[in-house]
Amino acid sequence: FSFEERLGMLVDVEYVNRKNNRLRRLIRNASFDKPGASIADINYRTGRKLKKSLIERLSTCEYITEKHNVIVLGATGAGKSYIACAFGMEACKRYYTVKYIRLPELLAELAIARGEGCFKKIINQYKKYSLLILDEWMLVSLTETEARDLLEIIHYRHKNASTIFCS
Question: CA 83, 39, 16 angle in degrees (round to 5)?
Fold first, then answer.
């Protein structure tokens, strides 16, 4: 190989390694509950009433580009978290920043941050993700402070970023 060809191969290998490292970092930082979730593995049997065309359309992540939100509803054990994590994985594959968190964990984190004086920092952190996945949405009643904190995050993200609500 000539010098230019060898240099080109080295650049290609480095580029691929950097993209792969970035993808692994995005997936790790997303903290998925189901890190193995995949759109390809979703079961569409008739009892689940899932629309394959809708899920395939959402897997393109166009809703993130358009800054729309998604609500995933269903009975306990229906696979809501799995589907949300699968959408999150697809977003990571397109190099969007994603964060998965259960609502009780988020509320606890906000309460601790308020007590430690770093509340604004935590709020700003949740505002910056391209996709925020809030699981176990509103399964318990909120205190006035929790509702206000949650509204702060949701209000900012409205028309600025996408959120998936699972309930």
Answer: 120
